[in-house]
Design a protein that fits this description.
The chain contains 8 helices and 6 strands.
């Protein structure tokens, strides 16, 4: 699976203010001291989980060849990022056939979509990972973020522990590409919202 040859930045259908950012970063590893961002998928949503804007882009973070070499030195990443096309897209960036955003351009692009003076919630699954990336690499955006994280992971584990199965088949739509995973995480967050609404309705009736 290959990304477009240039970043995708689009408005969504919702005209309400952005309240939350569902973000998935693909990186060269999991050590925050050394990792580099290689791709981002982001969906801005309003307070009803309606899509307000989208960003999908490779990221020019550090030396591209060094990022490829780092990925190729980690067996788990070699398999994942070769299979999902990220290594191919990084090589296309080296040859000039694919253009990415720098972290600074990504940060400003996101900020331009956000309403003034409002704290923004971070959404996703395992989103503490993304939260720390924002803190280290997109500090101006991090300054706008709420300390609250809308994370599907704890909700999933709590539901599974209670009833013995998952609410949704959250893995079927995961591509280990930024935008595909952000979309899968948002679908799961919406499923939990709808579940809580149904429970609340039943409690009111009883």
């Amino acid at each position: 699976m290959k990304i477009s040859t240039k970043p995708r930045v689009e408005r969504g259908l919702s005209t309400l203010e952005t309240n939350e950012l569902v973000i998935d970063f693909e990186t060269t590893g999991i050590d925050h001291e050394t990792l580099r961002i290689v791709e981002v998928g982001l969906i801005g949503v309003d307070r009803h989980y309606g899509d307000t804007f989208y960003i999908e882009s490779m990221i020019e973070h550090g030396d591209i060849q060094e990022n490829i070499d780092t990925i190729m030195s980690i067996p788990a990443l070699v398999e994942m990022h070769t299979e999902n096309g990220i290594v191919d897209d990084l090589e296309r960036m080296l040859s000039g056939d694919c253009v990415g955003m720098t972290p600074a351009v990504l940060e400003q692009t996101i900020l331009d979509f956000l309403p003034d003076g409002t704290q923004i919630i971070l959404g996703g699954s395992g989103a503490n990972f993304e939260y720390e990336i924002l803190r280290r690499h997109l500090p101006n955006l991090f300054a706008r973020m709420s300390p609250f994280i809308d994370d599907a992971g704890p909700q999933r584990r709590g539901y599974r522990n209670a009833v013995g199965h998952n609410l949704t088949d959250f893995t079927k739509d995961k591509t280990h590409r930024g935008f595909g995973d952000a979309r899968a995480h948002l679908a799961e967050l919406r499923a939990f919202r709808d579940y809580h609404k149904r429970v609340e309705k039943l409690l009111r009736v009883s």
